[in-house]
């Protein structure tokens, strides 16, 4: 069960030809796959393409109707290898993952796939998680395309172009026997837009047909001498075929109605809208892409088409290239092309734009301004009068909520429009610096009631007792432990590599290393790379596996050990069986992570035991986000039906709390917050639990384990109390009420 | 044909929504899109959810263009996917600091931006986890916002949402409608909520509440009142002997210190009894006299006011007897019901998380007994395991309640307990230091009083605070007679409050050792 349900949205996948589709980019891409007659789809979830996987999972019946096979792959490597079905058979296949992390994992299979080449169209849809909000290292997918010779599509970020790119991608792949990567940036994946649909198509050749009449061709297998030949074939046959197709089908677009003929702009398709906005902000374009400077849009960013570049640059004094990320592969390529053809056109790119970092509209505008200043300064809108309050003291380097530094926000000149184009006067940032002193950062963190929080509370307490240890982190929700208030974890090397990244620390020491991985990472590759490796090398450290029943960080998809009954997948395969199966002897399972003291004791045991070999601790509790989604409607329904139901939640007695906030430093739960004490004798705010509390019990357990304070209480709210409840309540009320009123009278006597 | 003639001058409306994960920023963005599309506009929205789903800050960005313009051009617009600083018409922030973040990011500009921000606070983890008071001053955002935005609407949309039984996206939507910042009618807005089909009634109610407030919003938002409410000194008290004490305060103490003295008197009487309250006033009388003698009048009675608070806190220390008393009061039972929003037909059981250590148990024993255990390693070894685990106590059950009630009743023996002896020793030392210091350095004496702020919490936390406090008192003794002593002690105290372990304090002390010598 995924975090977001697309049951309603997937109905749009059924709409017939000629109708208007309105919705999110990623849903449009799914529709495009069906329109292209895809035979199978696979992938591994992760932002920003988690939704694509969730959409496909929710569209299972539609896929079955069309004879399309869908798999949730074990990893991106599995997904990439799945494309091997298109090597020998004319079946269109698409796989998807988060890039560049997923592309790293997949690149072994991708390289082999690209070497032998494909018969059916093979499309890799990567969600490029680059720039603001990204949770991964900043790298370019472009490099993978170049090294394996896979064509790279980077369409303009509107639904029409994206849908077209899917169809074009399959055709290009088939025309050149080469896999194709379709790169979609994160904002593109989530953009809301519209396009006119086509009829869904059944695959022309199905997987079962292939199985019934298997084919093999040693020339396509990556084994010498065929492998030597593949490299030549790539250059001799596939590259020219691709170039021919791209040129004939005009996959790249030229918008050259502009009147400024001696300049030009070359832009990666995905950056097109930003480029238009940068032109518009300087009065050189409107909001429909009508630009005074001609634009060449590279919807295909690899390979670069030499002829098109030469043609576009002909008679141009200078061309500005918008190429995001580094190294500047395209810029180098363009320069090579132009030098070979003897052109004098200047290619301006990273000389006027930042070498690294996201190309936001502001960055692109500033780059364009520098470019024009160098080439045709008279084109820049001029300052005719002082705009009001044009206090231009650039506040740069300000931190946003995710801790990213915004790229330099240089001051834009306050500009006035040229005739006919309206220019936006820009007043810059005069308040940025001032307010930066005030606004606190707001990093992401564990959700309310997250079962992983108590684990890190326990680990923090363990370290308070046994001293600081080396902790290797992993990818997943649990990596939020790196942030306040836990501040735990030293490295993160990749998904499922938590245990593997402690491998070197397999030496004698008074303190054992600790590694952490989630169930998602464990099944992704942690079982082999981490656990298996540790057993084999007689690793002496502690490996913590957090089993929250889902691949939670990517949106709550099922994994092998999930507890859900998934009709299409085999779940309920316990992690402990796998761990023991590869030879781990010391394993502890705690099936309620909220038992902070118990978790702490287990950590201490694992860190101090005499036993050799890896010490594996499996900590299980259901992801609270998913649990609430599952349980809440059931609870409300039961209450409605008049059943006796008990809801738990926690509270803090404000008059008992002394305002030290030690509980918050050990928890960080969003529902555990602070408020004014209303007590003139207390200067500091007191702890307070708001109504978002889900009653997980972590704060109470932490206050027990850490011997914090007696202010916490758990309130059991009994809905529809039964007769026994009412009887007890009456008896209690009589005694308690009597004593309470006695005390009240005493207090009243001394009240002021 | 040159492009100049074909260029279209229509400008999109640019909207940024700043929210925290889980606040429904996406719902709000989708509502605006649906409304705009139904009203014949071309709408684009996008966002970067990513890890921001998990409580972090995130931005949704929208651009709206009249559909008519799109038809005239015959091609789809190329709208931006992210806001450009200085180029946003409407900023909607679901929390005050997120409004601040919008300003920080340059999205709010005086020539064109309407900024609608909820004034409520969801504290960031750094604010919450500070050992003292880490809350950022929201009025700074309001002050800057007034200058940064063309129009700034700021009011508590969270509470309006709750009043309507809905969530903040609904009240934000209402505020946008009420502000008139978008060219859509109230009916357009409401129809959008209705078409959503989920929680419509509650959403519409929250919408309407916010709509009205936004319609009547002042030119510039009011500052949030963060000053602690000034308590009035009551005229009289029920009990004649309490009234006598009250009259004592009214007649013999400076008015500036009276509210705090009343609070202190109340606390000490509740803690123990009337006689204890009287004792409190006697301590205060001494301090007040000193205050008067050494220029308190010119300093707004700083010494008396500060001491009125901390003498009471020191005398009414947090022990298990007090906790048991607070937990068993009728008012507390009602407060819990209110806080968890229990309906009249629901029962509420309360389980207390208590973890008394052997130290606390010894503390409630008569001095001779408590000391005997504490001084005997073998007894401690034998008893300690009994107190290793936390206890769950159902204070709404008869046994649980009677246990706590009985414990609270031990109040009458409190003066003979070990804990009382220890507390009073420390209290007396502190008091003496204040009395000694005030004649030479009034300001330093005030700071010494305020050092008591460090003593709080229970068990380990208490021990940690106590040790920081001891360090401060030692430093205070060393500082006595030196230049800027008060200021230096204040610096040290702030450092002590800055982090849990007291490493900042230690660093300062280490650096300052020579200065103090």
From TrEMBL, chain A:
Q: Does the keyword Oxidoreductase apply?
A: yes
**Signal peptide as annotated in the record:** none
Q: Does the keyword Metal-binding apply?
A: yes
Q: Name one Pfam family in it.
A: TPP_enzyme_C
Which residue ranges does the record assign to the Thiamine pyrophosphate enzyme TPP-binding domain?
475-617
Query: What is the taxonomic lineage of the source species?
Result: Bacteria, Pseudomonadati, Pseudomonadota, Betaproteobacteria, Burkholderiales
User: Keywords assigned by UniProt?
Assistant: Metal-binding, Oxidoreductase
| SUPFAM superfamilies found in the cross-reference section | Thiamin diphosphate-binding fold (THDP-binding)
* Protein name (Swiss-Prot/TrEMBL): Indolepyruvate ferredoxin oxidoreductase
Record field: transmembrane: none
Q: Which Gene3D superfamilies match?
A: 3.40.50.970
* Domain of life where this protein originates: Bacteria
From TrEMBL, chain B:
Example GO molecular function term? indolepyruvate ferredoxin oxidoreductase activity
Q: Which UniProt keywords apply?
A: Oxidoreductase
Which residues are in the DUF6537 domain?
259-474
**Pfam families given for it?**
DUF6537, POR
SUPFAM superfamilies in the cross-refs: Pyruvate-ferredoxin oxidoreductase, PFOR, domain III
Q: What class of enzyme is it?
A: oxidoreductase
Q: Which InterPro entries match?
A: DUF6537, IorB_Oxidoreductase, Pyrv/ketoisovalerate_OxRed_cat, Pyrv_flavodox_OxRed_cen
Q: What is its EC number?
A: 1.2.7.8
- Pyruvate/ketoisovalerate oxidoreductase catalytic domain span: 21-212
NCBIfam families assigned: PRK08312.1
Which PANTHER family does the UniProt entry name for this protein? INDOLEPYRUVATE OXIDOREDUCTASE SUBUNIT IORB
What's this protein's name?
A: Indolepyruvate oxidoreductase subunit B
Which organism is this entry from? Neopusillimonas maritima
């Amino acid at each position: 069960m995924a975090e977001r349900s697309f049951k309603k949205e997937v109905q749009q996948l059924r709409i017939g030809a000629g109708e208007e589709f309105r919705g999110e980019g990623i849903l449009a891409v799914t529709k495009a796959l069906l329109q292209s007659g895809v035979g199978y789809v696979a992938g591994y979830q992760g932002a920003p393409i988690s939704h694509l996987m969730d959409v496909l999972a929710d569209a299972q019946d539609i896929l079955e109707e069309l004879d399309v096979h869908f798999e949730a792959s074990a990893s991106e490597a599995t997904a990439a290898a799945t494309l091997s079905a298109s090597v020998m058979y004319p079946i269109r296949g698409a796989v998807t993952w988060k890039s560049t992390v997923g592309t790293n994992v997949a690149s072994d299979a991708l390289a082999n796939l690209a070497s032998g080449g494909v018969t059916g169209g093979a499309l890799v849809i990567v969600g490029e998680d680059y720039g603001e909000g990204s949770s991964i290292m900043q790298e370019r997918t472009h490099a993978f395309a170049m090294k394996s010779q896979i064509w790279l599509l980077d369409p303009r970020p509107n639904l029409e172009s994206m849908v077209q790119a899917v169809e074009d991608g399959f055709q290009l792949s088939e025309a050149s026997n080469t896999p194709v990567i379709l790169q979609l940036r994160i904002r593109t994946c989530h953009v809301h837009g519209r396009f006119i649909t086509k009829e869904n198509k059944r695959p022309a050749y199905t997987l079962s047909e292939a199985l019934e009449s298997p084919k093999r061709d040693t020339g396509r297998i990556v084994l010498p001498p065929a492998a030597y030949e593949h490299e030549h074939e790539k250059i001799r046959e596939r590259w020219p075929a691709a170039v021919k197709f791209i040129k004939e089908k005009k996959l790249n677009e030229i918008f050259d109605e502009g009147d400024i003929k001696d300049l030009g702009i070359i832009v990666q398709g995905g950056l097109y809208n930003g480029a238009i906005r940068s032109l518009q902000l300087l009065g050189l374009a409107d909001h429909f892409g009508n630009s005074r400077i001609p634009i060449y849009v590279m919807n295909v960013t690899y390979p670069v088409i030499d002829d098109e570049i030469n043609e576009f640059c002909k008679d141009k004094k200078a061309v500005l290239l918008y190429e995001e990320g580094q190294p500047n592969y395209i810029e180098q390529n363009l320069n090579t092309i132009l030098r070979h053809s003897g052109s004098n056109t200047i290619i301006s790119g990273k000389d006027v734009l930042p070498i690294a970092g996201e190309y936001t509209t502001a960055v692109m505008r500033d780059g364009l301004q520098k470019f024009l200043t160098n080439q045709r300064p008279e084109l820049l809108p001029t300052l005719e009068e002082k705009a009001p309050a044009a206090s231009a003291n650039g506040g740069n380097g300000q931190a946003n909520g995710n801790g990213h530094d915004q790229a330099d926000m240089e001051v834009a000149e306050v500009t006035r429009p040229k005739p006919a184009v309206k220019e936006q006067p820009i007043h810059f940032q005069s308040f940025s610096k001032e307010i930066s002193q005030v606004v606190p950062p707001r990093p992401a963190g564990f959700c309310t009631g997250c079962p992983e929080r108590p684990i890190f509370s326990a680990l923090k307490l363990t370290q308070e007792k046994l001293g600081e240890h080396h902790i290797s982190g992993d990818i997943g929700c649990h990596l939020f432990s790196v942030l306040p208030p836990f501040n735990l974890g030293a490295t993160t090397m990749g998904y499922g590599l938590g245990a593997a990244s402690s491998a070197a620390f397999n030496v004698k020491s008074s303190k054992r290393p600790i590694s952490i991985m989630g169930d998602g990472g464990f099944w992704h590759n942690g079982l082999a790379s981490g656990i298996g490796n540790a057993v084999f090398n007689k690793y002496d450290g502690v490996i913590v596996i957090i089993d929250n029943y889902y691949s939670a960080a990517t949106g709550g998809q099922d994994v092998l050990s999930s507890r859900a009954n998934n009709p299409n997948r085999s779940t309920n395969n316990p992690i402990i069986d796998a761990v023991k199966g590869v030879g781990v002897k010391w394993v502890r399972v705690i099936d309620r992570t909220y038992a902070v003291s118990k978790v702490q004791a287990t950590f201490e045991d694992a860190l101090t035991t005499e036993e050799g070999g890896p010490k594996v601790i499996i900590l299980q509790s259901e992801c609270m986000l998913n649990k609430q989604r599952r349980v809440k409607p059931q609870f409300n329904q039961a209450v409605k039906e008049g059943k006796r139901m008990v809801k738990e939640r926690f509270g803090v007695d404000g008059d008992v709390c002394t305002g030290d906030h030690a509980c918050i430093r050990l928890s960080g739960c969003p529902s555990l917050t602070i408020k004014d004490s209303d007590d003139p004798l207390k200067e500091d705010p007191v702890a307070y639990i708001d109504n978002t509390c889900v009653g997980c019990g972590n704060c109470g357990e932490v206050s027990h384990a850490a011997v914090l304070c007696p202010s916490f209480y758990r309130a059991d709210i009994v809905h529809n109390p039964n007769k026994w409840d009412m009887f007890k309540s009456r008896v209690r009320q009589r005694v308690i009420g009597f004593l309470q009123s006695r005390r009240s009278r005493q207090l009243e006597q001394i009240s002021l | 044909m040159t492009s100049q003639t074909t260029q279209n001058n229509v400008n999109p409306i640019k909207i940024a929504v700043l929210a925290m994960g889980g606040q429904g920023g996406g719902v709000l963005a989708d509502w605006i899109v649906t409304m705009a599309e139904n009203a014949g506009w071309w709408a684009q929205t996008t966002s970067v959810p990513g890890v921001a789903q998990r409580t972090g800050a995130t931005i949704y960005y929208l651009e709206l263009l009249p559909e008519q313009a799109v038809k005239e051009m015959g091609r789809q617009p190329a709208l931006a996917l992210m806001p450009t600083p200085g180029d946003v018409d409407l900023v909607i922030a679901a929390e005050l600091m997120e409004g601040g973040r919008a300003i920080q990011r340059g999205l709010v500009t005086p020539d064109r931006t309407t900024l609608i921000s909820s004034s409520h606070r969801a504290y960031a983890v750094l604010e919450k986890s500070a050992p003292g008071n880490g809350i950022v001053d929201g009025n700074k955002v309001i002050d800057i916002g007034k200058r940064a935005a063309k129009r700034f609407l700021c009011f508590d949309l969270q509470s309006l949402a709750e009043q309507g039984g809905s969530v903040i996206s609904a009240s934000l939507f209402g505020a946008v409608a009420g502000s008139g910042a978008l060219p859509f009618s109230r009916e357009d807005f409401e129809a959008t909520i209705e078409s959503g089909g989920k929680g419509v009634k509650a959403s519409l109610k929250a919408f309407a509440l916010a709509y009205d407030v936004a319609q009547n919003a002042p030119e510039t938002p009011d500052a949030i009142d963060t000053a602690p409410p000034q308590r009035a000194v009551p005229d009289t008290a029920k009990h004649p002997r309490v009234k006598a004490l009250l009259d004592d305060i009214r007649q013999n103490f400076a008015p500036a210190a009276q509210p705090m003295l009343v609070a202190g008197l109340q606390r000490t009487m509740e803690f123990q009894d009337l006689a204890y309250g009287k004792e409190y006033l006697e301590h205060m009388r001494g301090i007040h006299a000193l205050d008067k003698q050494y220029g308190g009048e010119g300093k707004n009675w700083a010494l008396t006011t500060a001491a009125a608070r901390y003498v009471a806190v020191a005398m009414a220390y947090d022990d298990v007897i007090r906790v048991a008393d607070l937990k068993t009061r009728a008012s507390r039972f009602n407060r819990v019901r209110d806080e968890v929003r229990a309906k009249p037909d629901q029962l509420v059981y309360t389980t207390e998380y208590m973890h008394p250590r052997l130290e606390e148990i010894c503390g409630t024993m008569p001095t001779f007994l408590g000391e005997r255990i504490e001084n005997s390693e073998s007894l401690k070894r034998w008893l300690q395991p009994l107190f290793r685990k936390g206890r769950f106590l159902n204070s709404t059950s008869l046994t649980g309640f009677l246990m706590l009630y009985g414990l609270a009743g031990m109040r009458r023996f409190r003066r003979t307990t070990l804990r009382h002896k220890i507390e009073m020793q420390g209290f007396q030392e502190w008091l003496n230091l204040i009395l000694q210091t005030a004649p030479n350095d009034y300001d330093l004496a005030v700071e010494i009083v305020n050092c008591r702020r460090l003593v709080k919490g229970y068990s380990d936390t208490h021990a940690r605070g106590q040790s920081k406090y001891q360090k401060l008192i030692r430093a205070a003794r060393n500082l006595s007679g030196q230049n800027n002593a008060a200021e230096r002690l204040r610096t040290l105290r702030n450092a002590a409050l800055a982090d849990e372990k007291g490493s900042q304090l230690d660093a300062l002390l280490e650096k300052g050792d020579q200065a103090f010598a």
